Amino acid sequence: MSTPTIPTVALNDGNAIPQLGFGVFQVPDDDTAAAVSSALEAGYRSIDTAAIYGNERGVGRAIAASAVPRDELFVTTKLWVSDLADPRTALRSSLDKLGLDRVDLFLIHWPAPATDAYLDAWQAMEELRTEGLTRSIGVSNFLPEHLDRIAALGGATPVINQVELHPALQNRETAAANAGHGIATEAWSPLAQGAVLGDEAGVRAADAHGVSPAQAVLRWHLQRGRIVIPKSVTPTRIAENLDVFGFDLTEAELAAIDGLDRGLRTGPHPAEFNG
Question: Which position among 22, 44, 53, 142 bears the catalytic label?
Answer without folding.
Answer: 53
